[in-house]
Amino acid sequence: MFTQITKGIKVSVKTNFEGTFFKNYKVHYAFGYTVTIENQSKHPVQLMARHWDIFDTLKEMETVDGEGVIGRKPVIQPGKSHTYSSGCLLASPIGAMMGYYHMVNLGNSEDFEVEIPLFKFAAPFAIN
Question: Which GO BP terms apply (predicted)?
Answer without folding.
Answer: error-free translesion synthesis
